[in-house]
Amino acid sequence: MTVPVTWQDVAALLPEFFLVVWASALLLLDVFWIREKRTTAWLSALGFVVALVLAVGQMGRAPLLAFRGMVIADAFSVFLVALFALSGLVGILLAQDYLARNGIERGEFYVLLMFSVVGMMLMARVADLVMIFLALELFSLPLYVMTGFARPRADSEEAALKYFLLGAFASGFMAFGIALVYGATSTTSLPHMVDVIQAGEADLALLTAGAALVLTGLGFKIATVPFHMWTPDVYHGAPSPVSGFMAATAKMAGFAALLRLFVLVFPVVADLTPVLWALAALSMVLGNVAAIAQRNIKRLLAYSSIAHAGYMLSAAVAFADPHLGPQAVAAILFYLVAYVLATFGAWGVVILLERRIGQEGLLLEDYAGLSRQYPGLAAAMAVFMLSFIGVPPTLGFFGKFYLFRVVLDAGFVGLALIGVLTSLVSAYYYLRVVMLMYMKPGEPIVRREPRVQATVLAAAALTLFLGLTAASSLYAWATEAILRFG
Amino acid sequence: MSGILEFVTHPLNAVTFFPLVGVVAILLLAREKETLIRWVALGTSLITFVISLGVLGLFNPQDPGLQLVYDRPWFTVAGWTIRYVMGVDGLSILLLLLTTLLTPIAILSTWTAIQERVKEFMIFFLLLEIGMVGVFLALDLFLFYIFWEFTLVPMYFLIGMWGGPRRMYAAIKFFLYTMAGSILMLLAIVWLGLHYGTFSVPDILAQGPVMGPVQYWLFLAFAAAFAIKVPMWPLHSWLPDAHVEAPTAGSVILAGVLLKMGTYGFLRFNMSLFPDAAKYYAPWVALLAVIGIVYGAIVSFPQRDVKKLVAYSSVSHLGFVMLGLFAFTPQGIEGAILQMINHGISTGALFLIVGMIYERRHTRDLDAFGGLWKVMPVYAVLSLITALSSMGLPGLNGFVGEFNILLGALGSRVLGSYWFAGFAALGVILAAVYMLTMYQKVFLGPLDKEENKCLQDLNWREVVTLLPLIVLMFWIGLYPKPFFALMHPAVEHLLQAVLK
User: Fold this and answer.
1) How far, in Å, CA of A474 to CA of B342, rounded?
2) Contacts of A387 in chain B (CB under 8 A)
3) Average pLDDT for B437-460
4) pTM across the whole model
């Protein structure tokens, strides 16, 4: 049987289609035609701009199942696809000068980044279990390669290998979980699965086991405790722009699939609520406590990203509640925006201070005295740190406020308490960065790279002012980004 | 455009956000133009003070309710309309004036003391003023929390960047301690929002208090934030560190205004939002307050660092304020509000005085001085007045506040015991002991230290810095009626609501 691809299918996935075609063409052009790697970078950045425009063009449309129910273009996925396109653009802006100055700039990097972003976009679009697996692999495989891009540096290669091995292991869990869920419901189509579960025809025990395994696989991608072990090593070993890109986007992709599955399809497996509760609590506690001991800024940000996964997951604990589910989704999307802005910004600063790849300029002490020579950069970093803590009026405060609202509304007072208390713990190590920049003398050496600097300052301005001026519209946008199947 | 115009021309928004004009102006100035930056900061804070006088002019003392209310929907989140509500009443008008008065005074005191990074200093100082004024005017819990928590950031930098040798430790301790309390309050605020569907304090009060045991938990969560800020014994340990390490202007604002944010929080939120819990816990709060009074006074006595001495005396004085508030009598609360102002004036002045000698001698050790009366007569006289005001000599401001508080605590039915007032009175005596000992060690006795013999007396700028505070000490001490008149209707109104 041949399956005709209609224009409607293409329209539903227009940004992804465009990016795949563009990336493939760029791969060939880069080999045969383009002399300057810089041109490849600019062309891929242009590709993301177009994808962003296409994604924005999809906004406000009715949800559309495409490719025989494999993917869906709903408000939720469009929200994330737009965010992914933007993140891809930022990823390239952060990477280009860094790769060039460290002598590891190759055209493949940008193409891999584009393919990875396509995979992440598809993670937000999934309407079929098979598609989840494909999207997961599509976004992960390029990340493994990008992690090892600083070849022949041993720590980069080690990180790549570690990430790949553990990632493959997690994919195994994922595949097994998908198989069990299929066994429980005898369908891979998510909309169909919802019907089967609602009709009470699903095997609940098998479904719960399958959902738990899927959670394991996704938990690895979003780096929650106890599936976080790889995070500090990989973020540390990978080239900094790759770490920043992963910290921001891989988490988004993981949450995209997790929310779609748990809020939309699996509310029936409410038995897993305590499991999610524990994952969230452990991530917040362990991520924040371990971050205190870090001397290296990349490892510090890695542990901090684990903690933030915990915060977001704490709202997802309310997934089984039909009223709170959509609110949890909105709160998490809002928080993701705040987190992604601060993460890209903070990693941008790391990139500017890293003198040679993986070597000098990565210790916290190297930030001493930054505020004297580079007041703008130091102020931006301080804004990111305060946003991570959740101090008003930064966007991070609004993000945490909405998260805790959902958590309290769902009645998880204990989890909310853990959340605020670990925020207090996190203030200690985030403020240490601020303290070094502002209160210790030092002679930091900073690169003059206008693209990275502009990205950092833009992220800081958005983090500082978006909360006070546009919290309402951003939240309204996130609220409209509801998950639907038709 | 008209929306923005309407926003900024409202007097309360104007007084809150005017310092932002100064911040922007200073940002645009080159960092080498230090004198100009100082003048811009001083000018901005003076204009803010003038605006606050305008607010006082518009304020009707007879009206017990909220006045000049500016209430607009701010943004909507999943069914919550978060409102931007500002307003002033008899409980907050004096604190507003205190804040806008102390800020220019503190800025003036930095004229020669702050030489490093003047630009950043002034920016943080003006940002701090925005936060403090906002705390006293915000009437929406969400908005209040934003201002409340925001004040931490500039103060953290002021202590950490311009403080003494242990400034980083003190700065982070200040931040973490205060944040520990406020995050519990944040959870309680979210809970209230879920319960009432609004954060606007007038709307919440109109719906009546939360019933049942939850009210008691909410009280405790709010109290955690405020008690740390006050600070109440035994949560005070951040205060001596912060005060000792902070630059003079930072100490002035810290003691003068930031601590009042805690007592004001009890008055504005804990008492009216959770009346049953407030009455239930009143004896316990009063007990901690009295322990604080006596403890602060006793610990002040042996201190050799003058700043530390004044810091511990703050613990004692703020204990009086808490005792007065939780007496739930008109005298008690009015005395407490007046004592908040008094403490701002007297302790602010004390820190200025310490700062002046520190700038000359670079030490605050009591043993390094003696006989200064002979070389610095003007300084000695002004210090004497301030010390006497701080210990509550009749005829000066401290007496009026403490006397009313003690009266209020004696007549309090909620506290139900004379012992609170009795032990608190002990604090008044102890205050005389440590204040006079300090004065004696610094100013009296022989002028036997070589370094002290050629000290310069105060210059005109320093006298101008202290003079408004000295005038207020006499004014409040001799004729406190206009001050009480401002707060009386509002306090009666509050008590009626709470005690019914």
Assistant:
1) 45
2) none
3) 85
4) 0.92
Interface of A with B in 98-137 (CB under 8 A): none
Structural domain containing residue A23: 7-480
Quick check: is A485 in a domain? no
Q: What angle do CA A281, A282, A284 make, to 5 degrees?
A: 65
* Residue of chain A minimizing CA distance to B153: A391
Q: How many CB atoms lie within 10 A of CB B379?
A: 24
- Domain-located, residue B170: no
A209-260 pLDDT per residue, tens: 999 999 999 999 999 989 998 999 999 999 999 999 999 999 999 999 999 8
User: Residue B1 above 70 pLDDT?
Assistant: no
pLDDT tens digit sequence for A5-42:
888 888 889 999 999 999 999 999 988 888 888 889 99
Report chain A residues whose CB lies below 8 A from the CB of B161: 438-439
User: Is residue A2 included in any domain, yes or no?
Assistant: no
- In-domain check, residue A486: no
State the Cα–Cα distance between residues A444 and A472, nearest whole angstrom.
39
Q: Which residues of A touch B13 (CB under 8 A)?
A: none
The crossing angle, in degrees rounded to 10, of helices B118-137 and B11-28 is 170
User: Searching chain A, which residue's CA lies closest to the CA of residue B76?
Assistant: A472
Please state the domain count of chain A: 1
The reply to whether B358 falls in a domain is yes
Total number of domains in chain B? 1
Question: Closest Cα of chain A to B140: distance in Å?
Answer: 15
Of residues B402, B248, B461, B421, the one with CA closest to residue B327: B421
* Chain A hits for B172, Cβ within 8 Å: 428, 431-432, 435
3-state helix, strand, coil in chain A (%, to 5): 80, 0, 20
Question: With an 8 Å Cβ cutoff, are B194 and A408 in contact?
Answer: yes
**B269 within some domain:** no
Instruction: Judge whether A335 lies within some domain.
Output: yes
Q: What is the pLDDT of residues A283-341, one digit of tens each?
A: 999 999 999 999 999 999 999 999 999 999 999 988 888 888 888 888 999 999 999 99
Is residue B136 pLDDT above 90, yes or no? yes
